[in-house]
Write a structure and sequence with these properties.
The chain has three helices and ten strands.
């Protein structure tokens, strides 16, 4: 387990997630963090990413599908740059999103699945996004998993990312 990430999350976001040691901190701020794991399989690049975001809870309207995608796009555009100048990550709106209410370690949450893409560039892949209310700290929390693995299977890696989210422990 990556103790550094667990401690930083607990201090700043008031919860912990069990990351393996291979994950690195790309960005860590008061309301946003980005963790990633880069590796190669048969000389092909794979990148597993998790974004964590918190904001004050402003009501149940925050769980609306359009609001979740809007917030995801705002956060990723501001924090996840692409490799070419002017490129940024966002949700792929040409395909439907799959959304359901789930229990995340006993906590009601909204899970949204879809595809992400880089605008002004050529990258993309699947994402799975989890949103829940942390009542104790009156914060709306978004945990977003996304994967880049061109021309490769992605199921196992997406399941790895989901298992990190399901390790959630609130303070």
């Amino acid at each position: 387990e990556n103790i550094e990430i667990a401690k930083k999350l607990k201090t700043t976001f008031k919860f912990s997630l069990a990351f393996s040691k291979e994950y690195l901190i790309s960005i860590f701020e008061d309301d946003f963090a980005w963790f990633r794991k880069d590796f190669k399989v048969n000389k092909e690049q794979k990148t597993l990413n998790i974004m964590v975001y918190k904001t004050p809870f402003l009501g149940n309207g925050m769980f609306n599908e359009e609001k979740i995608i809007e917030l995801r796009n705002k956060i990723s555009k501001a924090n996840i740059p692409g490799p070419t100048r002017g490129s940024y990550m966002g949700s792929e709106g040409r395909f439907p999103y799959y959304r359901k209410t789930i229990s995340l370690n006993g906590k009601p949450a909204v899970e949204t699945r879809g595809l992400w893409r880089l605008y002004n560039d050529f990258m993309g892949g699947p994402f799975v996004n989890y949103c829940f209310l942390d009542e104790k700290n009156n914060q709306f929390v978004m945990i977003d998993c996304f994967l880049y693995a061109p021309n490769q299977t992605k199921r196992d890696e997406l399941m790895q990312l989901e298992s990190i989210v399901y390790s959630l422990k609130l303070d």
